[in-house]
């Protein structure tokens, strides 16, 4: 299903993954590629882009007005879904997954499909490590937490130093932009960008490639249309890790 009009779905189940993160399951399954996103309409509130964490769910972190509304819904509530949109990750076995926080959401379907051999996961604390049991049943998991409450005390980037990166056929990445930029720099220094893919996030209004709010410099490509997943070497010299735009289009330094 891929419609430019919202398809109304009913929330059939809600799972609280952490204090600020919930997974909302719909009564409808969507055909999609891992990494694609949908526009989620909360009636009376707003419409926001969300990665599908499975064919019938989104995983939402409460970080703003729309996401607060989503995480406050109850089973039986109705929301609108447009999409799926954009392109997804390549389905290549023997992949290395790298994520921070809720950035695991678009990679989770790759894990479920058996494509990810090793998964490096970073978060501020153990309570923010999501889907732990699921990940460990599907891949070799290595964890880094800022406070050392689980796994390595430090950054997920530091886990990469102990992994033979060139032994993987694909490296997929999603997470906070500073983390993404650091991973990008490390892969660039190891000349591995050609076999890496990054899922990017930018403010979106339409999700259809019309409004231009999610364009990135200097290429002008649209996250919603040409992304949200890009091969690493395409992002060389881009704004990623340097600045982004708010709802008014104003450039803001990271």
Labels describing this entry:
5 helices; 2 domains; 6-stranded antiparallel beta barrel; 254 residues; 7-stranded mixed β-sheet; Rossmann fold; globular; 15 strands; alpha/beta; Elongation Factor Tu (Ef-tu), domain 3
How does this model look, in words?
The strands form three sheets. The protein has a seven-stranded mixed sheet with strand order 10-9-8-7-11-12-13, sandwiched between helices. Strands 1-2-5-4-3-6 form a six-stranded antiparallel β-barrel. The mean pLDDT is 94. It has five helices and 15 strands. It has 254 residues and is an alpha/beta fold. 15% of the residues lie in helices and 35% in strands. The N and C termini lie far apart (36 Å). It has two domains: 3-85, Elongation Factor Tu (Ef-tu), domain 3 (Beta Barrel), CATH 2.40.30; 95-253, Rossmann fold, CATH 3.40.50.80. The protein has helices spanning 65-71, 108-112, 132-138, 156-160, 177-189, and strands at residues 3-16, 21-26, 37-42, 46-54, 57-61, 78-85, 95-100, 116-123, 140-145, 152-153, 170-174, 196-199, 229-231, 243-245, 251-253. β3 (37-42) and β4 form a beta hairpin.
């Amino acid at each position: 299903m891929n419609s430019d009009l919202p398809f109304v779905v009913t929330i059939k189940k809600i799972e609280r993954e952490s204090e600020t993160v919930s997974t909302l399951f719909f009564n409808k399954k969507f055909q999609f590629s891992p990494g694609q996103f949908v526009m989620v309409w909360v009636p009376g509130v707003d419409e926001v882009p969300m990665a599908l964490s499975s064919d019938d769910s989104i995983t939402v972190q409460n970080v703003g007005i729309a996401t607060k509304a989503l995480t406050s819904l109850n089973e039986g509530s109705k929301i609108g879904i447009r999409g799926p949109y954009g392109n997804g990750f390549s389905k290549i076995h023997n992949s290395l997954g790298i994520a921070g926080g809720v950035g695991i959401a678009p990679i989770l379907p790759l894990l479920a499909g058996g494509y990810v051999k090793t998964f490096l996961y970073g978060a501020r604390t153990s309570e923010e490590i999501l889907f732990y049991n699921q990940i460990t049943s599907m891949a070799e998991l290595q964890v880094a937490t800022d406070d050392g409450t689980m796994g390595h005390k430090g950054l997920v980037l530091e886990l990469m130093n102990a992994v033979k990166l060139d032994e993987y056929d694909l490296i997929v990445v999603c997470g906070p932009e500073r983390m993404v930029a650091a991973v990008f720099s490390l892969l660039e220094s190891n000349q591995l960008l050609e076999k890496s893919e990054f899922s990017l996030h930018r403010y979106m209004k339409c999700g259809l490639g019309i409004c231009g709010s999610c364009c990135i410099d200097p290429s002008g490509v649209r996250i919603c249309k040409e992304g949200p997943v890009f091969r690493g070497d395409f992002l060389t010299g881009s704004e990623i890790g340097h600045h982004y735009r708010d709802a008014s289009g104003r450039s803001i330094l990271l």
